[in-house]
Structure formats: C-alpha cells, structure tokens
C-alpha cells in the first residue's frame, strides 16, 4: 500500500531481458536517487511510476526489480531508461498525506493539454472508457504514482477528459514535469470508487437467490 506522495526521483539505468524478448519480462536496475535504501529489504515493495514492484537485489545506491511481460504490456515508462517516481510501501504509523494507493495500474491514459495557469499548469488527460466511471470531481486519481485531485471531468465516447492542476512543487519533485501532449501515463483509480461501483452494481442487479 502507498500514498501517492513521491519520495524520490530515481532513474532506470539498465534493462536486462529475462529470456525471449517477445514473451519474457525484464530486470530493471534503478538508481534510487534520494530514496533511503537503508530501510529496504529483499522482497520489499517499491512503487515505480505508480507500479508496485518487488525488490530482488539491493546495492548501496540502487536496487533491482523483475517486471513481467504482462506488467510491461499494461503500463508505460518501465521499458526504457530514464527518470521514474519512487515511493516506499506505507508502514503502519506513517503519515497518509495523499490517498490510499495499491500500486496496481488500472490503465494507461494520454495527455491531451498542458496549459500554464498562473504559477501552475493545467494538465488534461484522456482516461479510457473502462475507467472513466470511477473518476469524479474533487476525487483522487493516481498518475504515474502521484496522488492528484481531479478538478473537472468531461465525458465523451472515448472515455473522459480530466483536468488536474499541477502546482510548482509537484512539477519539481516528480516526473510529471517531463510530460508532453501525447505522453502516456499510468493510472490508478481511487480504490473506494472501485468498491462503491461494485456494491451499487449488486444493488441494481442483485444476484439470484440459490
């Protein structure tokens, strides 16, 4: 479990195929940047661009994770060298400054607009149709591992265009500053919305009695 508050900017420095490039996953070597690795152990979870990964090797200032072909197919930003958002798993007693995040990427969105608004940037992205019902005004949405607040939702046949305000601190401390129109991003919906939708679905379409 995570909070969506990025702890450090790391960098994927090496990508090693784990077998047939068409079917096998990859081993990523990640420079941890300012992420304190002294609290990490083998088998721990670290969110990388919003995707929960298991530490399989530790070094003084880097760590390694294995990413399956399935994970590569359902995420973005884990198949090339470059900067990544990092966050240690939440521990009991830690401050919950963002919102509860599982680190399970639900889908990939696409940036549609980036407009300066005062000192901030209005960030618009297209949320695919199968996730759009879970996105709400003033609700939470995780983008590349960053907990963000939705300011506007405009539904259309492709899904929903979502507007989010990015303050200077968020841009400085995360990889969101690197986004361009057309960039793909990892999305995780608010887990509370997921459960509410499931419960409402059962109320509207109750299961037949045995």
Walkthrough of the structure:
This protein is mainly beta and 210 residues long. It has two domains: 8-88, Elongation Factor Tu (Ef-tu), domain 3 (Beta Barrel); 107-200, Beta Barrel (Elongation Factor Tu (Ef-tu), domain 3), CATH 2.40.30. 14% of the residues lie in helices and 43% in strands. It has four helices and twelve strands. The protein has helices at residues 69-74, 129-132, 168-173, 191-204, and strands at 8-17, 26-31, 45-48, 51-58, 62-67, 82-88, 107-117, 120-128, 140-143, 146-156, 159-166, 184-189. The strands form two sheets. It has a six-stranded antiparallel barrel with strand order 1-2-5-4-3-6. A six-stranded antiparallel β-barrel has the order 7-8-11-10-9-12. β1 (8-17) and β2 (26-31) form a beta hairpin. The N and C termini lie far apart (36 Å). The model has no long low-confidence stretch (mean pLDDT 93).
Rg is: 18 Å
Mean pLDDT: 93
Q: How are helices and strands ordered from N to C?
A: EEEEEHEEEHEEEHEH
Structural class estimated from helices and strands: mainly beta
Tell me the name of the CATH class of the largest domain: Mainly Beta
The CATH topology annotation of the largest domain reads as: Elongation Factor Tu (Ef-tu), domain 3
Proportion of residues in helical segments: 10-25%
Roughly what fraction of the amino acids lie in strands?
35-45%
What strand line-up does the widest sheet have? 1-2-5-4-3-6
Shape: globular
Domains, number: 2
Number of strands: 12
Q: Which stretches of 5+ consecutive residues score pLDDT under 50? A: none
Q: Tell me the span between the first and last alpha carbons.
A: 36 Å
The total of helices stands at 4
Which CATH architecture of the largest domain? Beta Barrel
The biggest beta sheet reads: 6 strands, antiparallel, barrel
